Amino acid sequence: MKKLLLSSVAFVFLLTSCGSKQKGELTGVQGKKWYPEKPYGMELIPRGSFIMGKSEEDQGKLLNAPTKTVTVRSFYMDDTEITNSEYRQFVEWVKDSIVRTKLAILADELGIGPEEGGIGDFAFKDADTTRASVYDKYMLDNYSGMGETGYEGRALSKDEDLVWNTSDYPDEYYTEIMDSIYLPEDESYNGQRTIDVKKLKYKYSWMDIEAAARASLKGNTSRKDFIRTEEVEIYPDTTVWIRDFSYSYNEPMHNDYFWHDAYSEYPVVGITWQQAKAFCNWRTKFKNDDNKSRGRQFVNQFRLPTEAEWEYAARGGIEGGTYPWGGPYVISDTGCFMANFKPQRGDYAADAALYTVEAKSYEPNDFNMYNMAGNVSEWTNSSYDPSAYDYVSTMNPNGGDQSNTRKVIRGGSWKDVAYFLQVSTRDYEYADSARSYIGFRTVQDYMGEEDSTQ
């Protein structure tokens, strides 16, 4: 009994000594230091309320945007549409990851490690367990072989640069893997080796929080029931330049628009809603991988804007404005068009552009947002319902019905008349559709800024 009493006293002493730094005060749990920063290429859109919908005449007679006063929280938004250059970074990352994974798997199957060179330079990093952490060894021992391929979660080696020049391939195994990602010779022409873009797939998981929250009311739910896995072909559909316009010569745009450096700062098009969502997930991962390497706390996710967020940002704080610059005219005091669209019944070049223009063209609105009207229409996260304004919340409204494949696009494009440039005009496209006139930009919820006074 005496030993038990002493043990109890010792246990209580340990518990009390653990809290000695707080000196008995309620100080809260101290986590990682938060380093708030303004996301690169984004502008802060301050929280506020506005009248969403058509306060002016509904020239289209669609009756799908009655006025409604709503409030949105603060968020960051890209100051331009996502450009070809930015989306190419995503494509290059996916291509790099796929090649490294294929090389690592073959090296693992052959039992070749870094000490043997060649394809061994690209072996999984955990192949050398002498330098692995206790956690890495535990995961390898307990979870190796699980998953669709059996290689999920294993660390890729990124110490060596990939070799793309065929004359510099290190061995026949490396050649075999590289050859597998290119189109076969009978599908190539003019002696060009072309990547098989259908193999550029990005796979990710996300949790359907809304579905989980509603299901929790019924009880007996499991977290894994609401984890969704997506695998998306991420290369833009360049054929949209041909398919969108019958009896029209647009082959130069099909051939050059996405990959040529001349179009690097132009908005990416030919992107489906699913591809835009995949890009948002990758951008979050890309940033958080870097934060992890620096010992910094993760940032919250990049995502597509809700319809309300998009309209609020497009208005730029101008209450009742017809266009991002106010309006009601699309021509400035100096006689210049204020956006890239289709003026004067088909005179596409009247606004100094035939197709798209560079993402930082024309004057930004008062939130410093470029091309919120014209250039390319933009995907939002919201599903389209003509009567959505009648039932969505007045606080951060969002019609996010997963079963509705019609997704709201906003802003009008280079091929649209002025009506579609109005900040209150609603339009939609199907989530699996890609168009030569639809792009996107991303947002991120606001979580604070660095103190510039320190």
UniProtKB/TrEMBL annotation:
This is Gliding motility lipoprotein GldK. PANTHER family: FORMYLGLYCINE-GENERATING ENZYME, SULFATASE MODIFYING FACTOR 1, 2. It comes from Maribacter hydrothermalis. Keywords: Lipoprotein. Transmembrane segments: none annotated. Residues 42-443 form the Sulfatase-modifying factor enzyme-like domain. It comes from the Bacteria. One of its GO terms (molecular function) is formylglycine-generating oxidase activity.
